[in-house]
């Protein structure tokens, strides 16, 4: 049974909550993440070391976009690639904390 309101707020869980607004005509609009949000998510997943595949699935990106972000984060020395794992650097941890504080 559908509620009388035009939009219903539905929470889906895929490693974290994503907000989807579903209208009753079948359309779905997704709240977009900023570049900073995506970078912070990648740094969070790579905190203890993560393979590219793990980052892609945890952050919900496709491989091509993930590759661009990983290259950018490596250039800025926020993440490093060692033994097949991406690991957040100390500089990356500081960036992550600063981004979290600015978000509040």
Automatic annotation (TrEMBL):
Pfam families: HTH_45 (PF14947). InterPro entries: ArnR1-like_HTH, WH-like_DNA-bd_sf, WH_DNA-bd_sf. It comes from the Archaea. Residues 32-102 form the ArnR1-like winged helix-turn-helix domain. This is ArnR1-like winged helix-turn-helix domain-containing protein. It comes from Methanosarcina barkeri (strain Fusaro / DSM 804).
